[in-house]
Amino acid sequence: MRKDLLRVIVALSVAAAGCGGDGGGYGSGPNGNAGPSTSTSVTVRNNIFEPASTTVSVGATVTWTWAQGAVEHNVTFDDGPKSATQSTGGYTRQFGTAGSYPYHCTIHPSMTGSVTVR
User: Fold this and answer.
1) Angstrom distance (rounded) from CA 105 to CA 77
2) What's the number of domains the chain is made of?
3) Domain range for residue 73?
4) Can you tell me the distance from the alpha carbon of 16 to that of 10, in angstroms, rounded to the nearest whole number?
5) 5 falls in which pLDDT band (50, 70, 90)?
6) What is the CATH number of the domain that holds 108?
7) Cα 69 to Cα 66: distance, rounded to the nearest angstrom
């Protein structure tokens, strides 16, 4: 019985490690060691937005591009605008007012990001 339990635990661990596709963790995670991002390009990968947060100037347009092989995701802003749920393609939004604009994927709730506009 103990060996059977161990096999189940190992199988579940292997299955959990395989989730997420291209090696990205579940959720946004930190922006590496590169420091704060000022990019106007965000890559939508399996279960992460990369970079997870960015700071842009008033009037900037930010583009989200789905990585090859990504599962379906969307970009849904807390203030209303949202992309289609898709696995390829892109989405753009222009930011005309300073502020903080958090967003998430409604399919994967811990997949979050934000755009700060200054």
Assistant:
1) 9
2) 1
3) 24-117
4) 10
5) very low
6) 2.60.40.420
7) 8
